[in-house]
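Hi there, hope your week has been kind to you so far. No rush at all, and the record is pasted right below.
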Amino acid sequence: MKIQLSQERVLHWAVTAVAVAMVLYHMWVILAGPSEAIIFRGTHLMFALGLCFLIYGSKVGLIRPIPTLLDYVWLAAGIASVLYLFINYEYIITRIYYIDDLTWADLIFGTILIVVVTEATRRCVDVALPITGLIFLLYGLFIARLEPERLIDQLYMTTEGIFGQALAVSASFVIIFVVFGSFMEKTGVGQLFMDFAMALTGHTAGGPGKVAVVSSSLFGTISGSAVANVMVDGPISIPLMKRSGFKPHFAAGVEATASTGGQIMPPIMGAAAFVMAEFLAVPYGQIVIWAVIPAILYYVACFAAVHFEAKRQGIHGVPRSELPRLRIVMAERGHLFLPILILLVVMYSGYSAPLAALAGTLSCFPVAALRKSTRVNVRWQNVVDAMVEGAKNSLAVALACASAGIMIGVVTLSGLGIVFTQWVVGLSQDYLFIALVMTMLAAIVLGTGLPTTPSYILLTALLIPAIMKLGVIEPAAHMFAFYFAVLSAITPPVALAVFAAAGLAKADMWDSGWAAMKIGAAGFIVPFMFVYQPALLMIGTWPEIIQAFITSSIGIALFAGGLHGYFVTRASMWQRGLLVAAGGCLVFPGAWNDLAGVVLAGIVVAVQLIERRKEIASPKPEPVKPGS
């Protein structure tokens, strides 16, 4: 028993040392500048592989207390295949790709790395992603008839495969933003967000549900992970919602939908947003600007859904006496918002996004030390724990990006992207709406098995060129794919955020999944809105942007009211139909559409106001006395 405990302690220190070294290395690179592409990305991958095989057992997602001999063999094989490139770096950069034949060593180590990355992804992420990668490899070898030597050359010896742009984004952007989120958590910002949301909305109709929406949107800005968001907010918000009267499956749906939106919520979005910045060759700050209004519209949809469902069921808020006071919350913990403010100021002062994230990260604990209420969190152990958690949380993204590099390498070498574009354009018969629906369905299907980042990367290679060919501007095309890659997290049958929330709520997964889709249904039309109306991406004049935002917000509220059967008062079936139709008219551009939406909404509101006055004027029956 003592030997076992000793081994566990040694492993703990080893994992801590590797994780801290990983974080410090990436911080140093931000300040000193990255080395050559393969060296930098390869080092990032070595750290990820090392931690993966030390932490995760052979079963998917299982954290094993002590690695087996086989785990160390996997680890050594992965490290050796990357070190081979470092040792032979001169040979790697001077050879002519696709022309010079590979040596036996190149072929062996290249094959080993492909297998090791696939196994590490299976352990750390999910089994669906490596299976998808294997399908692409089989397609390349047996359908596209690619030579195995050329395929290994592409995937291993160049920066167009495993060491491609996706892994570069993970190494340059994602890890430091994930570490920033871990530092924020360790200083107590999670409690700040929850108390802040409770003070703002807890007293209103369905208050606990609105608390989940607000707190999840705030926490999502530093998390970028739907499941992580659910697991932080859910244990507090879901029991509150159930106690207030919401059904368990609806409470799970609210938390899953609100948490999923964190990936599209600026200033810190999901990892795929950083990939998008690289693909479009624009600063990350530009992606944030494009994402602001769509993210607000998504949360308007969630907030309206909770409000109308609460009003329909007569669910009230939490008494003010039981809620934290906003003034006290801001006085005691409000300073913890400063690191986010510092990040934004540095980023919009012209510095790079990684440097801005580093500035925010380094400010977290000094800011926490400003007040006695948060000074308790300022401990060296917390700093180390934040680094370890940040490194661990970045593993899934790093390995997913490496696996996505395998798929993109096959797509590039085989020309599959061109074939797909021609197929989509031909099948849609040049109708943009049909092509958009096909892209949406593809994103949802891919998202059932893949994390957001590889799902978005595949859409970029296969479908985005098709909708751009039909006239969609580039930012709108990429945001469309990104948005639906994110929303796949709440779309059955495989909806990871719903799984997590349903478990916390002790609710049926399918009921929770359909509730999440109903809550987020208005959000599902947002991507179509900014494709047809780029002003929602802040592309256009200010009058156009403001008008588009106002009409779209009203339209989404009407849409949510129709789905949940309440607006001014309870809605009958015909009123619900008109509300949905009015919302649909207002969210799409055009003066006639807006006029039709206003007329339809006006009819429903007028009828409901009359009905409400009758309800108020009608005498209430006297309560029946006991025993009478």
User: Anything to note?
Assistant: The two ends are 72 Å apart (CA to CA).
